[in-house]
Amino acid sequence: GAVVSQHPSRVICKSGTSVKIECRSLDFQATTMFWYRQFPKKSLMLMATSNEGSKATYEQGVEKDKFLINHASLTLSTLTVTSAHPEDSSFYICSATRDGSYEQYFGPGTRLTVT
Amino acid sequence: GEDVEQSLFLSVREGDSSVINCTYTDSSSTYLYWYKQEPGAGLQLLTYIFSNMDMKQDQRLTVLLNKKDKHLSLRIADTQTGDSAIYFCAARSDYKLSFGAGTTVTVRA
User: Fold this and answer.
1) Window from A39-48, A55-64, B50-59 with minimum mean pLDDT
2) DSSP secondary structure string, B6-57?
3) What is the pLDDT of residue A12?
4) Could you tell me which chain B residue has the CA closest to the CA of A39?
5) Probe site for chain A from B3, B44, B95 (most A CB atoms < 10 A)
6) What is the predicted pLDDT for the residue at A115?
7) A100 vs A64, which has greater pLDDT?
8) Would you call A31 exposed, middle or buried from its count of C-beta atoms within 10 A (0-12, 13-18, 19+)?
């Protein structure tokens, strides 16, 4: 158990458009979901933490108006990159925790390329 | 915030042991993790150790923790070509994970 999926796995979009990435917990209810960004050959940087039904908590330096996070249900969180620019190109990874546990289960990641 | 550091590259001959080292700064870190990432994929949890433990062994994997020095290591015995990947060390404080930059392990025949 504890499988997390992401969709799409890869997306290419034009500069100025918005793109939505979904993160789903397939076999458990995720009380908390995390969004990370990974630069090439770099570590994962936590962008935000979201709890179902409440506003996301963004890390310092992450623009909340640019990276919109919605956690509408216990199995789905979405990250929307608004007005994307080439510098937003990155690998975005989500993770989820079950109720009562701090263990994070990671999704397979989404490769975003903005042209 | 917490700083987690690890060496960036390791090359090892197939069949030998690999040792990846990691240091962290937050002494209140409760759990320390090792994740594996293969090209284009997400993170796979390999093993973890609670901060009050010194050592944990799980098949070919051995984790050593020196809490005084805030030093963590992962030893992979009998390294195989399928072990080639990036290995991330992570420290947990409260509910947040802080990751190192990852060690790229290359296994040569």
Assistant:
1) A39-48
2) E-SEEEEETTS-EEEEEEE--TT--EEEEEEE-TT--EEEEEEEETT-SEEE
3) 97
4) B101
5) B95
6) 96
7) A64
8) middle
